[in-house]
């Protein structure tokens, strides 16, 4: 009886160690396969998460433009088109300035002089033509905004006063003279407001950057002026 009892115990000891070794090897193999899968999948997952983060920045920039200008700019993420440009209005007026100008015309003929002097008040508006290119390019290193230059959108007459209207003895003021004098006033108002577009660009950039704060540096550029043809 004693001999029969000892044989199973000896057999269990004989096979128990290899079985444990097999289990350990199997566990290590599964762990290695799992780590290999994670290592293989991580770059793709990290890339997807990075692109998703850049797209969120692109949408935030788009939302800023919509709030300020009712404009969705063209948005690219890593130089890949993400959103096309759309707008519901043609122009965005940012600054409005009242301008007063005077114009005087003197004309002498055969010793006879006629004179016209006018004073005009105009409302000059500056801003952006939203049909031009507005683009946002988002990359891991920076956010680049490219905007068109602002421009004078309108010069609206508010009031015109005739300060002087004098006829010469035979050199009379004609309707054509008055028409030309009146036409000179808006041009003078536009010239007097030539600094207004630059101020509009600064105002828009400041307002936009007050609301838009991505982790990357933000650079705003305007296209170089076209060379004189």
Structure, described:
With 229 residues, the chain is an alpha+beta fold. 45% of the residues lie in helices and 34% in strands. The protein contains three helices and ten strands; from the N terminus they run αβββββββββααβ. It has helices at 2-69, 175-192, 196-211; strands spanning 71-72, 74-77, 80-83, 86-87, 91-109, 112-129, 135-138, 143-146, 151-166, 218-221. A five-stranded mixed β-sheet has the order 3-2-7-8-10, covered by helices on one side. A hairpin with a 2-residue loop joins β2 (74-77) and β3. The protein is rod-shaped.
Task: Write a short abstract of this structure.
Helices cover 45% and strands 34% of the residues.
How far the N terminus sits from the C terminus, by CA atoms, comes to 117 Å
Which stretches are low in confidence, meaning pLDDT under 50 for 5 or more residues running? Answer: 1-5, 41-48
Q: Give the strand content.
A: 25-35%
What is the total tally of β strands? 10
Rounded Rg: 38 Å
Instruction: Give the topology string: H per helix, E per strand.
Output: HEEEEEEEEEHHE
Q: How many H/I helical runs?
A: 3
Structural class: alpha+beta
List the domain count as a whole number.
1
Overall body shape: rod-shaped
Strands, helices and their partners?
Elements: H1 2-69, E1 71-72, E2 74-77, E3 80-83, E4 86-87, E5 91-109, E6 112-129, E7 135-138, E8 143-146, E9 151-166, H2 175-192, H3 196-211, E10 218-221
Parallel strand pairs: 2-7, 8-10
Antiparallel strand pairs: 1-4, 2-3, 5-6, 6-9, 7-8
């Amino acid at each position: 009886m004693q001999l029969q009892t000892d044989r199973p115990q000896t057999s269990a000891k004989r096979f128990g160690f290899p079985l444990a070794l097999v289990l350990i090897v199997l566990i290590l193999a599964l762990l290695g396969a799992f780590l290999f899968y994670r290592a293989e999948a991580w770059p793709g997952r990290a890339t997807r998460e990075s692109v998703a983060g850049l797209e969120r920045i692109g949408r935030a920039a788009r939302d800023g433009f919509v709030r300020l200008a009712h404009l969705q700019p063209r948005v690219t993420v890593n130089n890949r088109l993400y959103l096309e440009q759309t707008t519901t209005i043609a122009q965005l007026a940012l600054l409005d300035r009242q301008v007063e100008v005077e114009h005087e015309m003197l004309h002498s003929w055969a010793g006879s002089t006629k004179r016209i002097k006018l004073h005009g008040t105009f409302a000059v508006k500056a801003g952006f033509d939203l049909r031009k290119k507005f683009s946002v390019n988002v990359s891991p290193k920076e956010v680049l905004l490219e905007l068109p230059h602002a421009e004078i959108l309108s010069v609206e007459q508010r009031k015109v006063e005739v300060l002087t209207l004098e006829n010469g003895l035979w050199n009379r003021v004609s309707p054509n003279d008055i028409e030309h004098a009146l036409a000179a006033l808006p041009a003078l108002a536009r010239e007097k407001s030539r600094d207004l577009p630059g101020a509009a660009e600064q105002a828009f950039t400041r307002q936009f950057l007050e609301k838009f704060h991505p982790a990357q540096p933000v650079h705003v550029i305007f296209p170089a002026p076209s060379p004189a043809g």
